[in-house]
Amino acid sequence: MIDKSKWPGTNLRHALVACAAPAVFVMISVPAFAADPNIRLSSPVGCKIGGICTIQNYVDRDPGPGAKDYTCGRLVYNGHKGTDFRLPDASWLKHNVAVLAAAPGKVMGTRNDVADHAPDQYDPNRNKGRECGNGVLIDHGGGWRTQYCHLRKGSVSVRKGDRVSRRAALGIIGLSGKTEFPHLHFSVKYKSKVIDPFLGVGAKAGCGVKGKPLWEPSLLSDLTYRPSGVLSSGFTDKVPTTKQVVAGQHRHKRLSRNAPNLLFWVMIFGLQPGDTEVLRILGPDGRLFVRKKSPAARKHMVRRFTYSGKRNRRPLAPGLYRGEYLLMRTKEGRRIVALKTTAGVRIE
């Protein structure tokens, strides 16, 4: 999530979201690569897109004060200039998910000293002028540049002037700069203009327009647009908060029979107006332990967190409890299951 950065040609004082003092990024000439009007981008993250990694925000295609992604969907916020590849929650940071060069080129600037913060604990005053956090800027020649933001402090493995190959490791996804959740903010520019990699150069303004994606053809199936998806789910014995869940807490596989509560929670992206949610917990004998159905959603939510359960007034029966979540949506006049997920916890 970002970004209000300026990419003024070769003025690298501002190349990483005004990220450093003038003494660090000096005026230099653009390297003379051969022009490539048909650049092809590989995945900038070392994880399965649509699996572990999810695209939560796209480039904003609405020229006005509203926000729409390239499909005219709402996985975006006003003024967003890149594509956000997120991890489910902060517990995945320990897996050291790599940030990769999307195309060969020359490193034009880096930053590697911004401290990571806890989820939803971004301090705008502390990071003013360093919204990208730790990052890398690469020139691919022919007017093409890519920028990689929110890397982990100390993980950036390239330096200014390095030549990098496609899929070369640049660093590790982190929580630095202006971000509320662990992700890579990946942005593309052609001749100083923001380019939506799902439409390419020459696409008309607005959403729902035709274009030529910049991604490698082998990636397109993984990059299929998903208007909604499950980020994470689990069981806990305490009332959870969004912040705690994004931090990777409340994911118990086992709980005591004397646990004060038994709660099943789910976090999704892409809640749409009219959607309803159903959460159920089934006991070891298959009987319904608790059920909750939400009223129809009134507005779109990029991220949605919900839970249901019971306070336990007596010891729980031992065995495996199962949580089930359904997101119901109207499509072409029919009510369908748009999302479904399950989780389990063993009571001992």
From TrEMBL:
Residues 79-197 form the M23ase beta-sheet core domain. Keywords: Signal. InterPro entries: Cell_wall_metabolism_enzyme (IPR050570), Dup_hybrid_motif (IPR011055), M23ase_b-sheet_dom (IPR016047). GO terms for molecular function: metalloendopeptidase activity. Coiled coil: none annotated. This is M23ase beta-sheet core domain-containing protein. It comes from marine metagenome.
